[in-house]
Design goal:
The chain contains four helices and four strands. A four-stranded antiparallel β-sheet has the order 1-2-4-3, covered by helices on one side. Helix 1 runs antiparallel to helix 2 (51-64). The chain has helices spanning 11-25, 51-64, 90-100, 104-121; strands at 29-36, 39-44, 69-74, 79-84. The chain is an alpha+beta fold.
């Protein structure tokens, strides 16, 4: 059975939920990997402590936008959140990833800068 490529959230609710995503993952994503046209993985830091909140947020997202499928992989070194959609919804997935990762590059650059400064002081 095919899931329609549509979301039921109104504009204000969608913006609020995207904001929740940004707040939750921006400082904790180590990298974002597009592993297929329909699947992207967000690799979270090994010390990420928001897994419960992230699970709830993925559940809310799928209620409002049933095309999304989220899966978690937990390893000894990190936590991976995979975001997957049907092929016909690939542009929606990319737009979602773009929206929630808006601050990640800045955060990663800041972390690298802090690490470089600390390394120089050692």
């Amino acid at each position: 059975m095919s899931v329609p490529v549509a979301c039921t959230l109104d504009g204000a609710s969608a913006r609020a939920q995207l904001s929740d995503w940004r707040v939750l993952v921006t400082d904790d994503v180590e990298r974002c990997v597009r592993v297929a046209p329909t699947r992207t993985q967000l690799v979270l830091r090994s010390d990420f402590d928001g897994l419960s909140a992230l699970a709830l947020l993925t559940q809310l997202e799928t209620r409002g936008c049933a095309i999304f499928r989220f899966t978690f992989e937990v390893t000894a070194t990190n936590i991976v959140l995979a975001v997957e959609v049907p092929a016909e919804a690939s542009p929606v997935r990319q737009s979602f990833i773009d929206e929630i990762t808006v601050g990640i590059e800045q955060s990663l650059a800041t972390q690298r800068c802090q690490l470089d400064v600390e390394g120089c002081r050692a």
